[in-house]
Amino acid sequence: MPKHIKSTKEKIGMAPGTLIHVGERLSEDVKINLIKYTVDSFTTEILNDFSSIEYSPSETSISWLNVDGLHDIKLIEQLGNKFNIHPLTLEDVLNTTQRPKVDFDDNYIFVVLKMLYYNDELREIHSEQVSLIIFKKYLFSFQEFEGDVFGDLRKRLQQNKSNIRSKGTDYLAYSLLDSIIDSYFDILENIGNNVDEVEDKLLSNPDKAIMPEIYNLKREMILLRNSVWPLREILGSLIKSDNLIVEDKTLMYLRDIYDHTIQVMDIIETYRDILSGMLDTYLSSISNKTNDVMKVLTIFSTIFIPLTFLAGIYGMNFDYMPELRLKYGYIMFWVITLITIIFMINYFKRKKWF
Amino acid sequence: MPKHIKSTKEKIGMAPGTLIHVGERLSEDVKINLIKYTVDSFTTEILNDFSSIEYSPSETSISWLNVDGLHDIKLIEQLGNKFNIHPLTLEDVLNTTQRPKVDFDDNYIFVVLKMLYYNDELREIHSEQVSLIIFKKYLFSFQEFEGDVFGDLRKRLQQNKSNIRSKGTDYLAYSLLDSIIDSYFDILENIGNNVDEVEDKLLSNPDKAIMPEIYNLKREMILLRNSVWPLREILGSLIKSDNLIVEDKTLMYLRDIYDHTIQVMDIIETYRDILSGMLDTYLSSISNKTNDVMKVLTIFSTIFIPLTFLAGIYGMNFDYMPELRLKYGYIMFWVITLITIIFMINYFKRKKWF
Amino acid sequence: MPKHIKSTKEKIGMAPGTLIHVGERLSEDVKINLIKYTVDSFTTEILNDFSSIEYSPSETSISWLNVDGLHDIKLIEQLGNKFNIHPLTLEDVLNTTQRPKVDFDDNYIFVVLKMLYYNDELREIHSEQVSLIIFKKYLFSFQEFEGDVFGDLRKRLQQNKSNIRSKGTDYLAYSLLDSIIDSYFDILENIGNNVDEVEDKLLSNPDKAIMPEIYNLKREMILLRNSVWPLREILGSLIKSDNLIVEDKTLMYLRDIYDHTIQVMDIIETYRDILSGMLDTYLSSISNKTNDVMKVLTIFSTIFIPLTFLAGIYGMNFDYMPELRLKYGYIMFWVITLITIIFMINYFKRKKWF
Amino acid sequence: MPKHIKSTKEKIGMAPGTLIHVGERLSEDVKINLIKYTVDSFTTEILNDFSSIEYSPSETSISWLNVDGLHDIKLIEQLGNKFNIHPLTLEDVLNTTQRPKVDFDDNYIFVVLKMLYYNDELREIHSEQVSLIIFKKYLFSFQEFEGDVFGDLRKRLQQNKSNIRSKGTDYLAYSLLDSIIDSYFDILENIGNNVDEVEDKLLSNPDKAIMPEIYNLKREMILLRNSVWPLREILGSLIKSDNLIVEDKTLMYLRDIYDHTIQVMDIIETYRDILSGMLDTYLSSISNKTNDVMKVLTIFSTIFIPLTFLAGIYGMNFDYMPELRLKYGYIMFWVITLITIIFMINYFKRKKWF
Amino acid sequence: MPKHIKSTKEKIGMAPGTLIHVGERLSEDVKINLIKYTVDSFTTEILNDFSSIEYSPSETSISWLNVDGLHDIKLIEQLGNKFNIHPLTLEDVLNTTQRPKVDFDDNYIFVVLKMLYYNDELREIHSEQVSLIIFKKYLFSFQEFEGDVFGDLRKRLQQNKSNIRSKGTDYLAYSLLDSIIDSYFDILENIGNNVDEVEDKLLSNPDKAIMPEIYNLKREMILLRNSVWPLREILGSLIKSDNLIVEDKTLMYLRDIYDHTIQVMDIIETYRDILSGMLDTYLSSISNKTNDVMKVLTIFSTIFIPLTFLAGIYGMNFDYMPELRLKYGYIMFWVITLITIIFMINYFKRKKWF
Hints:
5 copies of one chain form a homopentamer. By secondary structure, chain A is of the alpha+beta class. Chain A has helices at residues 73-83, 87-94, 151-159, 169-204, 210-240, 248-313, 322-325, 329-350; strands spanning 31-37, 42-47, 62-68, 101-104, 109-119, 124-134, 138-143. A 7-stranded mixed sheet of chain A has the order 2-1-3-7-6-5-4, with helices on both faces. In chain A, helix 4 packs antiparallel against helix 5 and helix 4 packs parallel to helix 6 (248-313). The radius of gyration of chain A is 34 Å and the shape is rod-shaped. The interface between A and D is large, with 65 and 71 residues. Chains A, B, C, D, E: This is Magnesium transport protein CorA.
């Protein structure tokens, strides 16, 4: 789906670390949602910029700043200066064509991944880039558009379910990753239903409309795989890396979503195998149909072409044609005709053409 | 087979470790079967819950608790509290869509795998998740439904065959894994018979019904592979891991079923290769059939179409057509006709169309 | 070739290490052939059982005991007790569906592999399991049936060629492996001749009979690969393992047959690639044939169908048809007919249909 | 695209390190462009040869010498002598058929890679070899022809954007690599547009012209992959190598373009998968078209061939044919004809051939 | 190309290290060419056997002994005894079906590889085995036939180009390998030209003769790959091995030809990909041709079959057929005929069948 591979053309020759937003530009305001919590407290706030936020290493409460919209470059620069974030990191936040990846800095971990939505009408997967910058006490998440899969997580934070507020930004980051990866299963279920549908059609009544559907599903699987495949590496790096932000007790949780990622990959590969099988089945069904059409033509032709020849003979105008004068000539003709037809039908029946 | 990929949709956004049963819910009661044995003793008991079971590190007898049915979440919670099992482990026990895996905790080893049944009528593999939580003296096994492949193992325990009661939970766990992997061979034999059947049809009389059968067998192989493939890793981890539960003398047994797993994978790959070859053969047989049908049509047409034209000529009503007036005109016509037919038949014979 | 994947069904639920013969049961007696030699002596003897054999670590002569037939379980048990062989090893000796493998025990090395025979008439590879139990001074080889590829080796032992009697059981084992792997080249040559034959047919006169032949050859390659592939690992393990039985000076010989195994794999993969190419060629030849048949039909039809229509016109009985009254009407008809035929033939010649 | 694989024929048997230019020979002069800068200064100069350049280890300013044209071997030899460059390195600079690679010498790093241009009219990728010899204070870049993708980089150097002049040759080399890899995205976008175009045609109106287009795009992807694939290794070596030229703070930048390279590979593989899918779709569309053509033929033939036979019957000249004498004979004939036509049309409608 | 896989049948059962020549036996004499040189001296001599050669560790000049012809086993034995060469090495020298490989002995390095020639008329690659036994001061090269690619190397030795005589046997061995690998590029260029030719035919006028050509090229690529692929390992081992013969300063040269080998593999894989694409294109071209043939047939049939039916109607002899009596009946018939033809042609034009 070349349409989904966005260009970074406008960037060629620019200095690395030059901040430029690559992606759809929107006129709406950028929204910053701050959730600040400790075990005992929980506050939520909408900010216009980062002016009220200060990096403080001795901070005790956890702050989650979610940014919807990436077109306000000044805001990102402001953040970069305040939190001493590497220009390449900021560049990657803004470049929404980034491949999912993880980078480790001295003070923070930077994660890029894809949030996916399935448009059931268009039967298309839509992808939105999510970047996380994880400090010990601050977590910044950047999304291209409003709307995400984190609603339940916000509720759990508010209600402090499973004592989530007693845990650090590493657990919060894990929860965000978990929500995103869980949503992949949702998409796979939707696609699975479409695969089921196409399979049913294929086995009952395969027609021309099936090929583009198989093609489409295959393409969606390719795109999905591209988004999911790098996650293995990312989670592997997070688990193996020796950094101060991810605590040991969080590792088990990361391993858990690592397993989920493997499972997503397994399902994707399974669907790809099944779609390949469906393609083979479809191609063989076309060949069989051509075969059937040919048989109908051949049966009719081989029965009637010789008979038409016979009729043609007795339509000739030779002066001397003794059969034409016979009393039972015409009846004989019919007898021969019928015998021929019966013989041919038997022949084709034996050949199992019916 | 998308129908077999169960959704975890209801879980999105939930806190990790939230216990929720994902799978078919049944109204039957959950059954707990306790087998407790030492070298000298063997008792078996049906329990309603885990209230009579207490974790005791100095316990000398081995307890195997088999749970049939996973819909009673309270029971699982009760167990979790008593044996200090990590919430993520309990979550995985209940989520029957889990990919086979192994997790090592301080006190126990957690193994998830698939028990497979072959429904010969539907020609479908049915899968049931089995989870094992292996403590030093306790082994918990969880199944979705009643009925399993452990009948012979229970007998061997009762009769203390090969001195099985003198061995630990690691050997018991090995015996369970061994029973399950042995049953895979059984399934492969069933599928192998179907492959044989389809192959015989294919080589003797390939018809349209073969394609869906090949497709089905391919799909079953994909599903089977998905269940078996992760077993290699699981057994590899068990063999390599340095833990207190698996004793050295059990390693040789684990290596043995590791070899069996490799063998199962080999057979699956062999069948996949064979099925690919069958597909090619089938597709070439359709093409050959079309070819044959075409030949019949062409032979009839090329013989009779020119002759019909000839008959048509002498059916014309031109005033001046000298041949019509000839005494032997009609006989000449037949002579030409027969020569043409003989010539054509020879021509096709030389072309090896008969 | 599912027929070749033997079931281990009867074993499900049995205790591991239970001795049961899996394979074809024969009524003939089991034959034990003992060859005992030192540099200076060579004796050969037929035994009925192992009662006269005693394990003695200080033994100086080398004993090679070759067992033909595996259905006498008592014999195997007797041996197991005398030489302290692990039950799992004995189980593997009897289970002739074993995947080739190597196991290292404290006192012996256990090797399973396949001896292959090519039945040129049926064009089928037959496989027989050979197991070797290699002690420092004793080597046990087990075969399913009488007859093997070790005849020349026995002669060399008797004649002490290349001073073979001065070497240990490791060198003897190497010689056995070498004989078996050399025989694979023989089989590959036979198959290669068949591939040549099919290729010649394919390029000169491809007909329907070729497809099953290609399919068969492919299946044989799959089976052959299954037998040979594990050998790489086995030899790799033997070379790398640090054990007391394989001496350093034998390693070079093992590396030599390791290279041969790689070469066998290379040839197998080459044949598989060539067979794939032959399949493509065959499929394209069917398509070309259909094309040719279609061209014959089309040439005849497009020439004669319009002419038949023309003849039909002048066979009509309209009262007023001026052409019929013309003196040269009939001749005109023939002129038009011949011009049409010449034009059409030219047209098809330009299209290169002839 | 064999045309793109240039021969090194003229080199066989020559001593390694013999300087000979392999590639297109041009009559134009070789141009040397020297850019010399420190944080505070920037000078640019056109040189005729390297006589004015001297290697000085204590040099403080950075010199970038870009050479356009490789046919002046003396110049290269002069450089080799002055800077003590290994003959094999010089040989590789001149051999423009080199596979991208990196070599580490004591004093310099040698990198070969491909600069690619997309000719949108010919829909062809053109490739030009770029070699970099990176000393601590000098960087030599060699191109086959004038014109490159470094224009923006030169501007940034002149304007000292992002303080680029304060960094070493390692950062300069990184900037050159970055420019080249960025240009790959540009090419991928162009190809992506072509893929889109072909896809649109394929889904709306697939005709014969599509196959060569798919074939062409596939070939371009193969060539592109060949140029990009070795870059991973090169960048990996640069990042991992422990040398004095690449400073630690540059590693992050190299990792960044390493990520870009992976992304380019991902996109290439995605396109290859999509092109495979398009091929399948195209092949199925031909089969469907043949099917449709066959249906038209069969419908017409099966309707009219029997009717023509019927008409033929009543064109016979038997003396005794009672139907011909019937008053309503002719009308009956039409009734039968119409009933037959209606019946056949219904039959084909039910078969969904319309 | 099974014809190229030579059997080692005659060897089964022989003792390892038995010297037997496997390959084409020639009646010509074996030729030994001795080139002996130091920096200052160069002598060349033809020997009949090795009697005048003595192994002397303190030797200062370098001796290169090239043996053309392998059928004189005594000569090889003589050499083996004099230089203390392992029997397995001698066996491998004589067995010309050896897979390319490297072996390290205490005193020498043994390398086997293939020298390839391209017969442009037969479009076949011919392969000749070359073995090198490299001592510190002696290098033995064995070829099956006279004639090789080392002519230029001999000249360089004589003229002491690039001071080649001052270097050791390792550099001489490198030069031999370099000559051989350079000649692979030559072969690839020849094959590349054939690929170009077939591609041009394919895109301009694909006919049946193309398929065997593609098949042939594919087979040549398979054989070429088999010869080249093991070279990577060989060179890798030579570079990594810690032996006394290969000096550090030669490593850079070995790395250089290692890179060339990778490049050869790259080109081979590229051609294989291109040939696959050509196969797809060819298959689609057959389908398109069949389609075109079908269209011609269908156009003619659907136009003339209904019209023939119409003519048949008015050729009927019913007593009462009013149209026949009409004055303009015949003209009406022609009007209807022409309208039908025009309508059909329009219909097919709209369907884009022309």
